[in-house]
Backbone:
């Protein structure tokens, strides 16, 4: 009875030690391929085709309008187009479109 209890305890300790060792060892491996850990919540990527943009002023206006919104990562803005990643739990495509149109441009798709 005592011997069995010792064996069980030792196996339990060995198992716990192995789990700790395993996670310590695997942690750096697991973080290597994750290039964008912060943007994992930004699941939805959307490109808006925008009419009415003609110069860098327009690019800045659209960029700033989008950056003010919550749950959004502005990926690229150029004349006629804006690409963003956003968290649909925080903001909708319609709200993004409305923010661009509030600056005086037209979202065509
Ligand atoms: Cu302009």
Residues:
């Amino acid at each position: 009875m005592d011997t069995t209890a010792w064996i069980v305890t030792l196996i339990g300790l060995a198992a716990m030690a192995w789990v700790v060792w395993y996670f310590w060892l695997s942690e750096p491996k697991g973080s290597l391929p994750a290039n964008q850990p912060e943007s994992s919540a930004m699941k939805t990527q959307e490109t808006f085709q925008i009419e009415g943009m003609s110069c860098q002023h327009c690019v800045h206006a659209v960029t700033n309008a989008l950056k003010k919104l919550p749950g959004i990562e502005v990926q690229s803005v150029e004349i006629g187009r804006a690409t963003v990643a956003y968290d649909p739990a925080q903001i909708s495509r319609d709200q993004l479109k409305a923010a661009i149109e509030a600056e005086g441009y037209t979202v065509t798709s």
About this structure: Residues 30-37 have pLDDT under 50 and may be disordered. DSSP finds three helices and four strands in the chain.
